[in-house]
């Protein structure tokens, strides 16, 4: 007989609570609420913002809001950490505490599969990389650009005017800055240092003119200045950061003051000791281990709109001496070497211009894990149901058997 809770030791009580149905029900209820409010907020704040708010591992607590950013429910724990608790609960209750034996093998396999699916989600959240690759028809590309990550690249020009290998200041260091903070970066290959300040995560680049004057106290560099704007909550791609940069020599003397805006695709240049240098602030370059050659891109929009209804790209993926042809259609991606290419968009070119395709590139180590987990769970449940069916049939046949002749005879009455 199982012990009553009051008769358990402290360790047994902790295990009983951690593996109990109460925590499972609470976690599933919280996930329902988080999914419900996240679905509502997506309408106002966009898909990317909502997913990161509710499901990112950095979100310990979540506050559901309406379109006016007013609370509509009490704060809830982030979905990532709710799933962590649910995974622990399932492991302890559904595997460690569960009855073992061949009759329960199907249930155990199903529990393992569900747990594996939850782990796949955590791996995806931590290690998935994604970006966009734009390729012109008839040309090829071997890199993508990571979304929402902007690096500062500093490079020199050689005698022919070509860019040399750049030194990079990664976005993760720049994003930690505020308007009043500074970041100093030094480089082994250069005799100067770079100082980043006045970082604005949401900005526009403006020209100082009679019709566009800078706010009071705002710095103007070479006739340009940054304007802080409201965050675009529906389309994250429209939120463009900017900052100011000082180039200083080893004695901390100012060489050049620059204004950088991530929406400007051209480098800002300066001269130092007879050599020309450039600085860019663009989306992080993500080199691919293969090339994508676009042969043809075509598609259709919904009537009367610019919203794509269907589009396709015919490509060749070149990996060393290996060449493979793919047709990428909406919801039918191409997979190669751990990378997945989705058709994200296409551009119809005007006369004399070249059409292009944009591919969403994803490198997710757990990309196929949910599929494997579903097959394993289905196999486990099928085995369990068949086992129960055979037991039921066997029990029914036993209960329906006629008694044998010996058992049907009346008992003998002893005589004296």
Main attributes?
4-stranded antiparallel beta sheet, alpha+beta, 30% helix, 416 residues, 8 helices, 3 domains, 10-stranded antiparallel beta sheet
SSE layout:
Layout: H1 10-18, H2 21-45, H3 47-55, E1 61-62, E2 76-77, H4 79-96, H5 105-127, E3 129-136, E4 140-156, E5 167-169, H6 171-174, E6 182-186, E7 192-200, E8 203-207, E9 224-228, E10 242-249, E11 254-261, E12 268-272, E13 275-301, E14 308-319, E15 322-329, E16 334-336, E17 339-347, E18 356-363, H7 369-399, H8 405-408
Antiparallel strand pairs: 1-2, 3-4, 3-18, 4-5, 4-13, 6-7, 7-10, 8-9, 10-11, 12-13, 13-14, 14-15, 16-17, 17-18
Helix pairs in contact: 2-3, 2-4, 4-5, 5-7
Please explain how this structure is put together.
The chain is of the alpha+beta class. It has three domains: 5-127 and 369-387, no CATH class; 129-142 and 288-363, no CATH class; 143-286, no CATH class. Helices cover 30% and strands 35% of the residues. It has helices at residues 10-18, 21-45, 47-55, 79-96, 105-127, 171-174, 369-399, 405-408, and strands at residues 61-62, 76-77, 129-136, 140-156, 167-169, 182-186, 192-200, 203-207, 224-228, 242-249, 254-261, 268-272, 275-301, 308-319, 322-329, 334-336, 339-347, 356-363. A hairpin with a 6-residue loop joins strand 13 (275-301) and strand 14. Helix 2 (21-45) packs antiparallel against helix 4 and helix 5 (105-127) packs antiparallel against helix 7. The radius of gyration is 31 Å and the shape is elongated.
Brief summary:
With 416 residues, the protein is an alpha+beta fold. Helix content is 30%, strand content 35%.
């Amino acid at each position: 007989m199982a012990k009553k809770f009051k008769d358990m030791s402290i360790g047994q009580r902790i295990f009983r609570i951690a593996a109990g149905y109460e925590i499972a029900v609470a976690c599933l209820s919280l996930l329902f609420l988080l999914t419900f409010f996240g679905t509502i907020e997506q309408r106002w704040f966009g898909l990317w913002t909502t997913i990161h708010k509710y499901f990112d591992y950095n979100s310990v607590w979540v506050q559901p809001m309406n379109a006016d950013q007013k609370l509509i429910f009490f704060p809830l724990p982030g979905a990532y950490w709710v799933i962590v608790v649910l995974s622990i609960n399932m492991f302890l209750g559904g595997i460690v505490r569960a009855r073992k034996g061949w009759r329960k093998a199907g249930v155990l396999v199903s529990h393992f599969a569900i747990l594996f699916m939850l782990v796949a989600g955590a791996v995806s959240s931590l290690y998935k990389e994604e970006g966009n690759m734009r390729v012109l028809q008839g040309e090829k590309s071997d890199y993508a650009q990571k979304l929402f990550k902007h690096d500062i690249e500093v490079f020199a020009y050689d005698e022919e005017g070509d860019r040399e290998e750049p030194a990079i200041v990664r976005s993760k260091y720049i994003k930690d800055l505020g308007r009043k903070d500074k970041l100093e970066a030094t480089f082994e290959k250069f005799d100067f240092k770079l100082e980043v300040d006045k970082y604005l995560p949401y900005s526009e680049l403006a020209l100082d003119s009679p019709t566009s004057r800078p706010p009071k106290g705002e710095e103007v560099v070479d006739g340009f200045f940054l304007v802080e704007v409201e965050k675009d909550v529906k389309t994250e791609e429209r939120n463009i950061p900017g900052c100011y940069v000082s180039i200083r020599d080893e004695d901390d003397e100012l060489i050049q003051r620059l204004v950088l805006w991530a929406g400007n695709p051209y480098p800002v240049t300066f001269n130092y000791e007879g050599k020309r240098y450039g600085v860019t602030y663009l989306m992080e370059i993500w080199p691919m281990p293969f090339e994508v050659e676009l042969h043809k891109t075509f598609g259709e929009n919904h009537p009367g709109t610019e919203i794509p209804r269907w589009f396709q790209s015919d490509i060749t993926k070149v990996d060393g001496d290996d060449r493979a042809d793919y047709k990428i259609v909406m919801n039918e991606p191409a997979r190669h070497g751990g990378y997945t290419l989705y058709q994200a968009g296409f551009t119809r070119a005007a006369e004399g211009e070249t059409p292009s395709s944009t591919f969403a590139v994803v490198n997710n180590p757990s990309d196929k894990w949910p599929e494997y987990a579903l097959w394993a769970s289905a196999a486990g449940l099928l085995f369990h149901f068949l086992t129960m069916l055979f037991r039921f049939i066997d029990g029914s046949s036993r209960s329906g058997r006629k008694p044998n002749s010996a058992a049907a005879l009346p008992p003998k009455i002893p005589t004296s």
